[in-house]
Amino acid sequence: MNNKVLDEEIVEQKKYMQKVKSIIKKGFYYIETMGCLLNENDSEKIEGMLVNMGYEKIDDYSKANVAVLNTCCIRENAENRVFGKLGAMKQYKKDGLIIAICGCMPQEKHIVNKMHESYNFVDIIFGTHTIYRFPELLFNVIDTNKKAENVIDIDGQIVEGLPIKRNDKYKANVTIMNGCNNFCSYCIVPYVRGRERSRNIEDIIAEIKELAINGYKEIILLGQNVNSYGKDLNDANSIFANLLYRINKIEGIEIIKFLSPHPKDFTDDVIHAIKECEKVHKVLHLPLQSGSTNVLKAMNRKYTKENYLNLVNKIRTEIPEVAFTTDIIVGFPGETEEDFQDTLDVISQVKFEQLFMFIYSRRVGTIADKMENQIPEDVKSERFTRLKKLADSIVFETGEKYIGTIQNILVDGISKNNDKMLTGRTNSGRIVNFEGKIDLIGQNVYIKIISNHGWYLKGNIAEN
Ligand code: SAH
Ligand code: SF4
Ligand code: F3S
Asked: Which ligand is closest to the CA of 104, given by its number?
């Protein structure tokens, strides 16, 4: 669909928003985002549309008129959570609750079939390519009391001009591209999000300038593979490094982060841009997945153990203050004990600031799912335990440097493990717990770190 047609579509959808509003007058919505930051940004757009249609947000679906589950299918447990939730929601159908399922799961045929067969009380199903059609679908359900569905396989463009309800006042998610071309053999994302499509650089800059005017200080650039931004645009100015330089110049923006870059696309111009742009956060997420060259090859990651370590060293030489976080998968098909040791070796060498660790989960339709050398569950979980132990010690080690430092923390809320403590995160993503009055939630405070507990730090509010 070209831009003009898409613009006309949006005008059309805005009419549906008005129609819904004039029917319902007032209502309540519940939304749950089950996936990554891209999903979260999609939810912000869905919420923007709901607010425009006259709905107000509530945290309890039993009291809602519309409940939206924005789903994820990256691992099996993400999918199971959705089915569990649907089971719990079903009883409120009798009170008129409209249930909508969207996001990545509806892009899988077998899931939609399962919905039709076993969860036929779901009213609305739409996928990742047609989020903007939600007002029309909701209108049809309200108007006719029938079900509505819109899932397409064709890559939808990133829609400009949708209303958006931001969940934060200070930091903003900005999607710069959609989809993924990499087809890592374990991953479902390319099948549910389509091919890479980059947004026009001027649209991105305009969005960020407006955010800055509205008081936003931190920008998180989102995409499945942000450092390949612009490769589909064939314009020398629309490349990731250039985007960083341009955002760096926007007055009012103080911190620029991005998720996720791919090690294979970490070219010199990107490294230089990160170095030269003082607003770009110097904690980089560099997903390793595995430390074994053999496994990386089978994963189709397009780098070796040595390439990865060389890249880390190169970035460290250019930007000495840099820190790294990473993602690891254990138990990929064919992973031997020796392969696993390679993963542990890279972790010990790089000393990550944070690690996100996953047990390999078979995804229908991916190459790895068809591999015959699947690893038994007990071996996977035993390796995961060893991985976790090493990660604990590395995270403790890299946490020591915080003791005695003063950190600027945005207070997120009350600590999950101790209701007498408040919690927030350092710029590098470390959890910090400290005592303080509840009205500090949502504010920025300076915290002096007094002790290191590995996955979290403890501190006190600093004088002045
Ligand atoms: N595009 C990003 C990440 C997308 S998904 C990237 O390339 O880094 C986030 C993480 O989920 C991945 O980095 C990977 O570690 C994990 N993941 C993806 N598919 C998985 C699977 N089938 N089983 C277990 N973990 C998986
Ligand atoms: Fe999945 Fe690989 Fe694409 Fe990341 S780069 S979304 S892991 S296919
Ligand atoms: Fe999940 Fe889709 Fe994101 S599968 S990780 S919500 S792109």
From this structure: 3
